[in-house]
Design brief:
The chain folds into three domains: 38 residues; 205 residues, P-loop containing nucleotide triphosphate hydrolases (Rossmann fold), CATH 3.40.50; 173 residues, Ribosomal Protein S5, domain 2 (2-Layer Sandwich). The chain has 455 residues and is α/β, with parallel strands linked by helices. The protein has ten helices and 23 strands. The protein is globular and about 75 Å long. It binds thymidine-5'-diphosphate and magnesium ion.
Amino acid sequence: MATTKTKSVWFCSHCGNEYSKWLGRCPACGEWNTLVEKEVVTGPAGKAARMSVPGASHKPLPLKEVSTTQEDRVSLGSAEVDRLLGGGIVKGSLVLMGGEPGIGKSTLSLQLPLHRPELKTLYVTGEESVKQVKMRADRLGGACDNCLIFSETDMGAILSEAEEVAPDLMIVDSVQTMYCQSVESTAGSVSQIKEVAAQLLRFAKESGIPVILIGHITKEGTIAGPKILEHIVDVVLQFEGENRGAYRVLRSIKNRFGSTSELAVFEMTGSGLREVANPSEMLIPMHEAGLSGTAISAMLDGNRPFLFEVQALVSSAVYGTAQRSAMGFDVRRLNMLLAVLERRAGFKLGQKDVFLNMAGGLRITDPACDLAVISAVLSSNFDYPIPSDVCFAGEVGLSGEIRPVSQADRRAVEAARLGFKRIFISSYSRLDRKSPGIEVVKVADIPALVRALFK
Ligand code: TYD
Ligand code: MG
């Protein structure tokens, strides 16, 4: 029979990292004299450590005998959030909603139950007082008969209250403020965060109640950040907004019950977050046609094509070294594209300042945006506006070739739907279907693009 043993480990009381021996200084956070000894039980997993997943079987089963009934999902009353989650939140799942402070996590998580009053919700707040939550709820304007607010940070009290209330949905704001008495370090440390998430996961799996856990991500790094939780939770939704603009993007970066790289756009208004169901209509130009330095990119995020504006400004460098800055776009990729323009197409941009901005505060990672970026840069450099009914979808390679991108035809169809007349794509693209109402211009390299665009 397997026996259990106890052994000593040392925890840093500042950051929560664990070591097998005592050290004067914690290598992870650099604090002195913070390691404390703790006895832990090792050996076969006890009852508490075993997680009971609903429908779990403790014997291996042939795959074909596993029944595949649909997961039980609960709609959260927001079409965009439901879509991100893959059709509502799955019962018994733990969803982590991460983002920088002030981006709108608390707003969205309170808005969900307010706009779906038939759901009995337990909203646990460790950051704001009950009064503050009420004031926010009034601002968001919604009925709150079924939404219980609980201001508490002790996980023991929270879980016993949750068992009693048995809500349809539980929201915990935020993981950094909660603590478990079984862990010695302070709230917000790595070991506390892990334990809080593990307890919530166990609670969700055992009770079948879906839990939304909010976590702050700081710009500085990952210490005590929700990054360490990504492998524990079922779904990770991340709030992004490049600047303090009105638009916020909620992205699904992990989803055990649906596809990832889906995205939803919200606009922060005076009365909460408004869903932007068709981002293209919001993200494309809000100025008159005829300005140089702007190009529209047809991009795809997850499964949805949408169009948005890339803005570039090229001007002579005032100081010795030219500046390069990019908002919402990887500045190293911008540097690479500028080097390609210089070496493969002969445009001397070395002495020019180049500023790039993705409209709407979006952060773009789709390589199909390259073609719009170089078009915007060239347009600004020549001070030659690109017609407003033209858009782009293509990746630029190191030898100056325009490379094909995925699902070019869907991008073309979306562009046609929005009234664009011409789309520039790679010569090597294969289009599976015709896109009526839009001329597809195929270009093989940068000189071909310049000839076709600035003729
Ligand atoms: P919040 O949701 O508290 O952010 P987080 O929980 O991610 O830290 O607040 C986001 C910001 O939005 C805050 O600066 C105030 C603003 N806001 C509005 O503009 N309109 C509103 O209706 C609400 C509730 C907040
Ligand atoms: Mg908050």
